[in-house]
Amino acid sequence: MHEWAVAESIVNTISKSFGERKILEVNVKIGELRGLNFEVLKDALKILSKESNLENVKFNLLICKATFKCLNCGEEWNMRKALKILKEILQEDYYVEEEDELEPPTHFIPGLIVGLQRCPRCGRMDIDVRSGRELEISGVVVE
């Protein structure tokens, strides 16, 4: 699970950047298109921070919603619409059964959401991802 690798990077970055200073809060922006399970990430941060000087730090995960814009006609849409478009494109043959549910391939390869996206108005694939790819430490509160 890459949530653990992301959590480890966050903890290591904060620990190296702030040394022994007392950290109270860490704000992390995470884009919807990162394909991260936020509950798993929260658990990983909690466990990994216990092994460092960040044991009682409050991690605030700020979810950045994905938005898209067609470079041809200017249409803008969100993740809900993007997933609806993909469902129309992908056939159930490409779905994978996991835990008695059919999962779209985008569950395993989130990049397909962008790679297969079409404008809902003109149908072109010439799109810009306006937001949703973020993965950054956006703020740290120090005592």
Keywords, separated by commas or semicolons:
143 residues, alpha+beta, hypothetical protein PF0899 fold, 4 helices
Quick structural summary:
This protein has 143 residues and is α+β, with helices and mostly antiparallel strands. The protein has helices spanning 2-18, 38-50, 79-89, 112-115; strands spanning 23-31, 58-64, 67-70, 76-78, 96-98, 101-103, 127-131, 135-142.
Could you characterize what this model shows?
The protein folds into two domains: 2-65 and 132-142, 2-Layer Sandwich (hypothetical protein PF0899 fold), CATH 3.30.2320; 67-130, no CATH class. The chain is 31% helix and 29% strand. It contains four helices and eight strands; from the N terminus they run αβαβββαββαββ. The strands form three sheets. A three-stranded mixed β-sheet has the order 2-1-8, with helices on one face. The chain has a three-stranded antiparallel β-sheet with strand order 4-3-7. It has a two-stranded antiparallel sheet with strand order 5-6. A hairpin with a 2-residue loop joins strand 5 (96-98) and strand 6. The protein is elongated.
